[in-house]
Amino acid sequence: MPTVAPLDLEGHVVSTHFLGDIPFFATAAGTVHRLDGGEKVTEAHQGLLTCIRDPFSATLLSGGEDGKVLRIGHDGTTTLLAEVPRKWISVIAGGPQNAVAYAVGKSSFVRQGDGSVKEFAEERSVEGIAFAPKGLRIAAARYNGVSLHWVGTNAPAADLDWKGAHTGVTFSPDGRFLVTMMQENALHGWKLDGKAGDNRHMRMTGYPAKVKSLSWSVKGKWLASSGAPAAIVWPFSSKDGPMGKAPMELGTRANIMVTQVAFHPAEEVLAIGFIDGMILGVRIADEKEALLRRPGKGAITGLSWSASGKLLSFSSEAGDCGVVDISA
User: Fold this and answer.
1) pLDDT for 41-74, tens place per residue?
2) Which keywords does the record carry (predicted)?
3) What is the DSSP annotation of 1-40?
4) Among residues 194, 181, 93, which one has the least CA distance to residue 141?
5) I need a surface site. Which of 91, 166, 236, 240 has the fewest CB within 10 A?
6) Distances from the Cα of 117 to the Cαs of 103, 106, 111, 309, in angstroms?
7) What is the mean pLDDT of the chain?
8) Dist. CA 199–CA 313, nearest whole Å
9) Does position 194 have pLDDT exceeding 90, yes or no?
10) Of 309, 322, 306, 211, whose CA–CA distance to 269 is shortest?
11) Residue 200 pLDDT level (bands cut at 50, 70, 90)
12) Helix H or strand E segment including 142
């Protein structure tokens, strides 16, 4: 079994991320801990709601109950990007050219690299935001669908409609598909590169619980999801994505729910975190499993691979976090 270096923190840890080979752990109280020649702490927020890794830069982005949006560097330094008094910032995304998107109520905001801010109003509250992999474009998930906005123009939004509450959103790495998490136990997808009149909807249903974690494989052939007692992994390699195809079920454990999924940065290997704190690694090709961590005190809330793919950090709602050395 790989070696595990534990890190015990107080209270709920919201997420974990690597910047290079430095693991970061963000707590609900607002502190961000990093293991960099010892444990170091950044006082980021008065109540932290979300902390993500910016896929376009080597930084973290965080939002809090204090209405602040911060960029956090690898040395723990913070830069205030936005502040909305008396509002909670729980929806955030990183984009190209140092752009950052965040949501407040029924509006999405995009702060561009030059500091200018553009607002996009919606009819309903924005529950999730994602930047397209190419071009300065955002998707805003809301009730009854998704709005697509080009940041650099005043063109009207392109609306992707599907009844129900959409609580999160992600683009495939090649930009051909868009997938949302829904309040009902399902995913919904749209094929973005189809001709007009194509059946562009993809319904991915059958989950026993809400999906709260998604991860694309390195080349976008697979989309892994939580929300079941196995990681549900949908195939996206064909031109129509998962339409008409059954998903793989990896790491099945009877009645023990998957809470987090994270694909390896270079290989088709999936890390799966469970509600009891256990972590499995599963190879897509042959479904071979490796135990990476035995059950712990609380549900896994975050999984993150280092850039080299040799280290896996994990966070938990009980504060029992750590780093798994896969190469050991």
Assistant:
1) 999 999 999 999 999 999 999 999 999 999 999 9
2) Cell projection, Cilium, Repeat, WD repeat
3) --EEEEEE-SS-EEEEEEETTEEEEEETTSEEEEESSSEE
4) 181
5) 240
6) 12, 16, 4, 36
7) 95
8) 40
9) no
10) 309
11) confident
12) strand 137-150
Q: What are phi and psi of 98, to 5 degrees?
A: 65, 20
Degrees to nearest 5, angle at CA 225 with 215 and 103: 65
Spell out the residues 6+ positions from residue 196 whose beta carbon is closer than 8 angstroms to its own.
Answer: none
Asked if 89 and 50 count as a contact pair (C-beta separation under 8 A), the reply is: yes
Token readout for 109 is: 């905001």
Supply the DSSP symbol for 221.
Answer: S
Nearest CA-CA partner of 259 in 230, 288, 284: 230
327 pLDDT band, cuts 50/70/90, is confident
Contact at 8 Å (CB) between 321 and 315?
yes
**pTM of whole model > 0.85?**
yes
Task: Over range 294-315, report the average pLDDT.
Answer: 97
Cβ atoms 313, 319 nearer than 8 A: no
Tens digits of residue pLDDT in 126-141: 999 999 999 899 999 9
The angle formed by the CA atoms of residues 72, 125 and 95, to the nearest 5 degrees, is: 35
Rounded Cα gap, residues 149 and 159, in angstroms: 9
Domains and CATH numbers, the chain: 1-39+211-328 (2.130.10.10)
pLDDT at 189: 96
How is residue 88 written in tokens?
């909670």
Strand partners, 207: none
User: For residue 114, what is the DSSP state?
Assistant: T
- What are the beta bridge partners of residue 101? 93, 110
Compute CA distances 175 → 43, 139, 172, 216, 257, whole Å: 36, 11, 5, 12, 30
Tokens of 181: 């998490």
Of 66-75, 174-183, 234-243, the range with the lowest mean pLDDT is: 234-243
CA distance 62 to 293: 27
